[in-house]
Design a protein that fits this description.
Layout (H helix, E strand, L loop, with lengths): L5 E7 L5 E2 L15 E7 L33 E2 L4 H7 L3 E2 L3 E6 L5 H14 L4 E5 L4 H11 L6 E5 L3 H11 L3 E5 L16 H18 L2 E7 L11 H5 L2 E6 L6 E9 L7 E7 L2 E4 L3 H5 L10 E8 L2 E13 L7 E4 L3 H15 L6 E7 L11 H13 L7 E3 L2 E2 L5 E2 L4 H10 L4 E5 H7 L6 E5 L2 H8 L1
Parallel strand pairs: 6-10, 6-11, 7-8, 7-9, 9-10, 15-19, 17-18, 19-22, 22-23
Antiparallel strand pairs: 1-2, 1-3, 4-5, 11-12, 12-13, 13-14, 15-16, 16-18, 20-21
């Protein structure tokens, strides 16, 4: 068969938009300077390898929705309750899951532990690595523990060979580490390019749906924190998980960004140890370790991550500015929200913060955007401004409006229960939530209607 014509095509690295010429702004996602040039074989490129073992076209037969049954066995438990929570109960059979994260954060270690747990319960697992040798994987596996004979390893980057091995060995779960190393021979661009990543993911998606095998793929991230390759990659998969945290610290946070089988608000907390990742069931206590007792500008707030209440510390530092324009900086929360809350304090409470630098930090490496932490940020700013420490056994939560009112938040009773469990004795909360939280609660509840009420009680 004659070889097809090699054409030069431009792809958007953000959304995968294809163009015959370079453009400064992508028409699809409206981003600037995202187009890269790639060579594409127009004649032979047919969207990857055929999934049909025979040469004949198979006819698609629709199914009756009422006849489809869902069994509990359709979800494989990973043996890690934190990961199962983020996944929505386990790995769904025939699903395609993308795990992203910074280099060295622990993606390969996490998936190798998942493979160990699955194989220990008799599930056949295939781990395919395009980055490490069998010896390197074995060295990491020895630190984690013993593996059963149902655990198979393969070092290969050619996706046609990978597909053949998967069809022949018939595993229940497959791990691809990483998608940026896989390539198709009939796509002329280099591995890791937009075309290769998109076409390789398309083949794995068909493989998962046709054979009913669960596939987990590792994706590297760019310096902006997004998965390298086209954004269409995240649209193709069923679940997108991001592994967050400082690689030099011991904690790791697994967050669901997209999940067709469960909530995207859940998080899992892990601690990195020499023998691998260990689950942290009591994340609130873990996040509050090392908290100063008599320091101003420190307050504990309660946020909800899905169904899990999480106590975290918010620190604020307010000092006189040496410049004409005061400096404001935030870590772990919304910068504009902090500026808004400072404006509310000036207008509604008469606190002169206009000539002060302000720094707000959410400890533990968490990123919290929930409005329920507004009251905590306000109290931390006031504590630092007045240089008066707050009660170390007190927590606060509530949304602050532009009029200075403290508004109700969801699941207030669960937040109070979490604070009581960890030994806190006082809780400042919206007055409208106070009555519902008093049932079976021994903690002292203080309901406030405005920011001014909270200031009068605390200072």
């Amino acid at each position: 068969m004659a070889k097809g014509k090699i054409a030069s095509v431009f792809f958007c690295q953000n959304c995968g938009y294809e163009s015959s010429k370079w453009m400064g702004q992508c028409p699809g996602c409206r981003e600037w300077n995202t187009f890269v040039e790639e060579k594409v074989d127009r004649g032979s490129h047919m969207g990857g390898t055929s999934l049909s073992s025979s040469g004949r076209m198979q006819k698609a037969v629709p199914s009756v929705l009422a006849d489809i049954t869902i069994r509990k066995e359709d979800k494989l438990s990973t043996g890690m309750s934190e990961l199962d929570r983020v996944l929505g109960g386990g790995i769904v059979q025939g699903s395609l899951t993308l795990v992203g994260g910074d280099p060295g954060i622990g993606k390969s270690t996490l998936l190798l532990q998942v493979c160990r747990n699955l194989s220990a319960r008799g599930h056949k697992v295939l781990y395919i690595s395009g980055e490490e040798s069998l010896t390197q994987i074995k060295m990491r596996a020895d630190r984690i523990g013993e593996f059963s004979s149902d655990m198979l390893l393969l070092c290969e980057t050619n996706l046609a060979e990978v597909e053949e091995v998967v069809r022949r060995s018939q595993p229940e779960a497959v791990v691809i580490d990483s998608i940026q190393t896989m390539y198709l021979e009939n796509v002329s661009s280099a591995p890791g390019s937009v075309s290769q990543v998109r076409e390789s993911t398309g083949i794995l998606l068909q493989l998962a749906k046709k054979l009913g095998v669960s596939i987990l793929i590792v994706g590297h991230v760019t310096k902006e924190g997004t998965v390298a390759g086209p954004r269409v990659l995240e649209h193709m998969v069923d679940t997108v998980l991001y592994f967050e945290g400082d690689r030099h610290a011991s904690y790791r946070i697994l967050r669901g960004v997209k999940n067709r089988f469960g909530s995207t608000n859940e998080i899992g907390v892990f601690e990195m140890r020499e023998e691998g990742l260990k689950e942290v069931p009591n994340a609130s206590e873990y996040m509050l370790n090392g908290r100063p007792e008599e320091a101003s500008g420190s307050v504990v707030v309660c946020t909800m991550e899905g169904t899990r209440p999480l106590l975290i510390e918010i620190q604020a530092l307010v000092c006189s500015s040496n410049f004409g324009i005061p400096r404001r900086q935030t870590t772990g929360t919304d910068f504009n929200r902090v500026n808004l809350l400072m404006a509310v304090l000036e207008k509604r409470s008469g606190v002169q913060l206009g000539g002060c630098d302000a720094y707000v930090n959410v400890t533990g490496g968490m990123k919290v955007l929930e409005p329920a932490i507004d009251l905590g940020i306000v109290l931390a700013l006031l504590s630092s401004f007045k240089n008066k420490p707050l009660n170390p056994r007190m927590i606060a939560f509530g949304e602050v409006g532009l009029s200075g009112e403290v508004r109700a938040v969801s699941q207030a009773a669960q937040r109070v229960a979490e604070a009581e469990k960890l030994g806190f004795d006082t809780c400042i909360l919206p007055a409208v939530c106070e009555e519902n939280c008093r049932k079976n609660s021994r903690i002292r509840l203080v309901g406030v209607n405005t920011v001014q009420d909270a200031m009068s009680l605390v200072f």
